[in-house]
């Protein structure tokens, strides 16, 4: 195959993967993120009052999700590596959809804790499994673009999901359920439906993709095998669990990701509550739908910024500053937001924070797949996500506890900002320990040993 033909096949292959696989996996992620954060909409809109929750109890209920999720991440991703993404991701979706629907009938705080924990168990492995699945379908040169398209689902979940949740919260009496209970039920059903579809829709490997022609299947298979063999030639980066768990780069990335996820979930779980507090702070009054629309505001610019920031990373090659610079901006902006003099100014600064966090995340996930492959990639990605998601628990519980202790969200938001700045510092330190890039690695993020 001559160079022109090879380039044409490469373009057509990546385009087909981008249009056939990425939107569907992004839809799965959309539903995933909406179901795990639905509690943030329910809390200040009836659930906290009906169940008699304090801020600390609400924060613990938000965060307890991550305990089972964390411990089962690595085993789940190893199972995905063994049994295939199609079966395993479909199984995960149907499981969490069933559990998510049960929130419609929760009666007390103890039941809420139990269901949130079980939801985490059911969802364990989905996100790192989706990252691994997409990474196994595109060579490194195209991975930043693919992961950015996938990650768009996360901010768009709030852009679409917040007004949707707001509308559903205003619907009382259907099946005898209060609005917040009906909202839980409605957002759970798509997980079951899409999970069943995924079983039949997702291919496990390029050779199973009937929408790729023979040349495209061959090019993609050869490109991925060549990349895998290059990674494993370093010996210590191949292997399985041990290779991932003993790799210093993996553990540094764990701590970096912790800061990002702490900021992400502090916003996700408490932004609707902060917005509902505008009524007392500024004397404003918002209905359910209006609160949903205001909650969505920061996430639409975040989606746009994510897309263009990742396009720049794709064009230049992912650099350290593509990850560290947004972390610095997020770390400075999030505590500043609470000192603004109006709802509009507060939401504007929170928008900057959301742009920063979402701009960094897809570029961050290109890093571990540059030096891990096979079972080590499955274990390493799951380990990073597991460790980072400890922050999902901490963000919910610590933010609520500090709010109860201090009487405001100022102190907990300074904690968020500090952790984002630590993540930025670790990212810079990671890159400076790397050897000087050579001509064939100049377009890649520097890697440390």
TrEMBL record:
Segments forming domain Major facilitator superfamily (MFS) profile: 21-435
Keyword annotations: Membrane, Transmembrane, Transmembrane helix, Transport
GO molecular function: transmembrane transporter activity
Task performed by this protein: Component of the tartrate utilization system and may allow entry of tartrate and tartrate dehydrogenase.
Organism: Nakamurella flavida
Matches recorded under InterPro entries: MFS, MFS_dom, MFS_trans_sf
Topology class, membrane: Multi-pass membrane protein
GO cellular component: plasma membrane
Subcellular location: Cell membrane
Primary subcellular site in the record, as a coarse category: membrane
UniProt protein name: Putative tartrate transporter
Chain segments annotated as transmembrane: 21-39, 51-72, 88-107, 113-137, 149-170, 182-202, 250-271, 291-309, 321-340, 346-365, 377-399, 411-430
């Amino acid at each position: 195959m001559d160079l022109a033909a090879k380039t044409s096949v490469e373009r057509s292959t990546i385009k087909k993967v981008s249009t056939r696989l990425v939107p569907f996996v992004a839809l799965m992620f959309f539903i995933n993120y909406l179901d795990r954060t639905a509690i943030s909409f329910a809390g200040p809109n009836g659930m906290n009052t009906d169940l008699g929750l304090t801020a600390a109890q609400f924060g613990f209920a938000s965060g307890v999700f991550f305990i089972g999720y964390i411990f089962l991440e690595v085993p789940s991703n190893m199972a995905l590596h063994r049994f295939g993404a199609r079966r395993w991701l479909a199984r995960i979706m149907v499981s969490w959809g069933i559990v998510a629907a049960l929130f419609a009938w929760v009666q007390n705080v103890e039941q809420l804790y139990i269901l949130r924990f079980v939801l985490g168990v059911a969802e364990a492995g989905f996100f790192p499994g989706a990252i691994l699945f997409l990474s196994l379908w595109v060579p490194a040169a195209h991975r930043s673009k693919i992961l950015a398209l996938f990650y768009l689902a996360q901010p768009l979940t709030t852009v679409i999901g917040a007004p949707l949740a707001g509308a559903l919260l205003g619907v009382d009496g259907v099946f005898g359920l209060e609005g917040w209970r009906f909202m839980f039920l409605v957002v759970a059903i798509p997980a079951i439906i899409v999970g069943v579809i995924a079983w039949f829709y997702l291919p496990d490997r390029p050779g199973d993709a009937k929408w790729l022609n023979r040349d495209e299947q061959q090019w993609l298979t050869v490109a991925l095998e060549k990349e895998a063999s290059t990674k494993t030639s370093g010996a210590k980066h191949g292997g399985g669990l041990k290779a991932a768990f003993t790799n210093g780069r993996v553990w540094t990335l764990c701590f970096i990701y912790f800061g990002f996820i702490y900021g992400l979930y502090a916003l996700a779980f408490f932004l609707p509550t902060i917005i509902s507090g505008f009524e007392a702070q500024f004397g404003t009054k918002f209905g359910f739908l209006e609160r949903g629309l205001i909650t969505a505001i920061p996430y639409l610019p975040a989606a746009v910024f994510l897309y263009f920031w990742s396009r720049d990373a794709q064009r230049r090659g992912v650099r350290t500053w593509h990850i560290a610079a947004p972390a610095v901006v997020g770390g400075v902006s999030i505590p500043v937001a609470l000192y603004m003099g109006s709802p509009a100014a507060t939401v504007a600064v929170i928008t900057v924070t959301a742009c920063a966090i979402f701009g960094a995340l897809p570029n961050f996930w290109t890093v571990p797949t540059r030096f891990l492959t096979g079972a080590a990639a499955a274990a390493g990605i799951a380990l990073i996500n597991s460790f980072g998601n400890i922050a999902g628990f901490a963000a919910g519980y610590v933010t609520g506890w500090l709010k109860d202790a201090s009487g405001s969200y100022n102190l907990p938001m300074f904690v968020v900002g500090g952790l984002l700045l630590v993540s930025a510092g670790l990212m810079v330190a990671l890159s400076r320990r790397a050897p000087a890039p050579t001509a064939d690695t100049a377009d890649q993020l520097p890697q440390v040993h």
